[in-house]
Every structure is written in C-alpha cells, then in structure tokens.
Amino acid sequence: MFAPIKGNHLKKRFKKQVVLDDVSITLHEGEIYGLIGPSGSGKTTLVKILLGLEKPDSGSVELLGKKPSLSAFFSLGYMAQSDALYNELSAYQNLDFFASIQGLNRKKRKQRIMEVAKLVDLQNDLRKNVSQFSGGMRRRLSLASALVHEPKLYLLDEPTVGLDPLIRKEIWALFQKLKKEGATIIVTTHVMMDEVVHCDRIGLLNHGKILASGAPDELMEKYHVSALEDIFLIKEEA
Ligand code: ADP
Ligand code: MG
C-alpha cells in the first residue's frame, strides 16, 4: 500500500535538548492518524520535519514518495499550530488569498470559498475582519484555508484546540467526510479521549519518542487499559 508519508529514524535536537529521539512513522493511504502527546512532546517538530519545513539531524522523510519539496508542500493541506492569517483582511479575503496561491481561477475560488466556509461554519462571518475573530473562529478559518484547494493529504497541527465541544464534533465529522472522499489525514492533539475514537490509528508521543502506535482498541487490549492515556503512565513507570 502506498504511504503518503514515511519518517524513518528521525532525530532532532535543539541545542542540548533531544526533541525527537528516533521516531519512525508511516501514514497509510486513506487513514486518519492521530499523533497524540502532551505539550512539548515534539508533535509540531515532527510535523514540520515530515513537511520539510524543518530538517532532522538524522533520519529521512518520504513525502508523497519523494524527498520533501516545495511543490509537495503546496499540494497538501497544512494547518499550522499558530494561525497564519492576515488580521487586516476579511475572512473572505484571507481565503481568496490562499486559493489564489493555489492557482484557482476566480469562479472556482468563489465557489470553493463558499463551500469551505460552510464546512467550518463561518459562512455568516466572511465579511468580518479577522482581527475581530475569536480564537476558535481563527482556528476554523485556518482549517478552511487548508481545505480550499481540495488536497488529498492533510497535516493538521492541533486543529481543534480551543474549540467548543459542539464545533469540535462537527470538525471531526468533517475529517471523516474528507476521509470518505479519499483523503489521508494526520492530526495532532494533546486532548485525548474524545478525539481518539475518530482515528484509525494513533501514535502516542512523549519526550520525543513514540511510546506505542496502532488502532486505539488494539492498543487498549495490548496494554490492558481502559483509557489510552494510561499507556503514558505505564511507559513512564517502565
Ligand atoms: P509539541 O508540539 O508537542 O508541543 P514541539 O515540537 O513544539 O512540541 O516542541 C518540543 C520541544 O522542542 C519543546 O521543549 C520546545 O520548547 C522545543 N522547541 C521547539 N521548537 C524549538 C526551536 N525552534 N528552538 C528551540 N527549542 C524548540
Ligand atoms: Mg505543537
């Protein structure tokens, strides 16, 4: 089976701190993979390395079958942890900007902006300046901008952080819909339980190491736990 993303034995330090310690990860086509770990565990660094935005000290990455490149980066849907939005522009103008970079023509842009705004429930806020947006609205607009060119591969860094439960649920329903349409998604989160159920496989990251990976129910069986976060404790004690 084709693996849209493969990371092999990735190591990364910042000064003396080991941030990724021999991480290997394979994303299967058509799955939702949850990269789960507490704040500071190395999620964002790993995602950036997989995208080619950050260089590993050692190890290798295959992104869409090749070494990471700018063209591969532009073909996928990336949502950074910190929202990269233009505050002085309206939500519509932000989406129009990202859609233009992706080379969508005017008519297509308009159509896609309406579609993605609806998907993230911002269709009534498109004319507002982003400076007036709440944190949750900014997150949803960032997500919309990652969707606008209909990518097949998504890397989403904490897309649901700061969203209220109802909207979180809707966003996960959206991920399921994208998956059904053939997309592959890797999503990071530090909020565990209610999000894990939506993932086909998860990887538990702590102190730069993948402690365990697999389907959530398989992991619960393997480690004899009723809650996946207990695996962190088991590994901590080991
Ligand atoms: P997470 O996304 O899981 O919160 P990060 O990958 O952002 O984790 O960070 C992992 C560790 O690496 C943290 O201790 C963080 O402070 C450190 N770190 C991340 N980026 C840098 C950087 N550019 N320079 C120095 N330290 C960094
Ligand atoms: Mg992070």
Describe the structure.
- The protein has 238 residues and is an alpha/beta fold.
- It folds into 2 domains: 1-7 and 23-76 and 178-193 and 208-229, P-loop containing nucleotide triphosphate hydrolases (Rossmann fold); 84-151, no CATH class.
- The chain has 9 helices and 9 strands.
- The protein has a 6-stranded mixed β-sheet with strand order 5-6-7-3-8-9, with helices on both faces.
- Strand 6 (153-157), helix 6 and strand 7 (184-189) form a beta-alpha-beta unit.
- Helix 3 (91-101) packs across helix 4, helix 3 (91-101) packs parallel to helix 5 and helix 4 (106-119) packs across helix 5 (135-147).
- The radius of gyration is 18 Å and the shape is globular.
- The site of adenosine-5'-diphosphate (ADP) has 10 residues, from helix 1.
CATH class (first level) name of the largest domain: Alpha Beta
Give the structural class: alpha/beta
The largest pleated sheet is described as: 6 strands, mixed
Number of strands: 9
As laid out across the biggest beta sheet, the strand order is 5-6-7-3-8-9
CATH superfamily of the largest domain: P-loop containing nucleotide triphosphate hydrolases
Bound molecules: adenosine-5'-diphosphate, magnesium ion
**CATH topology call of the largest domain:** Rossmann fold
Q: What is the helical fraction, as a range of percent? A: 25-40%
Give the low-confidence spans. Answer: none
Instruction: Give the overall silhouette.
Output: globular
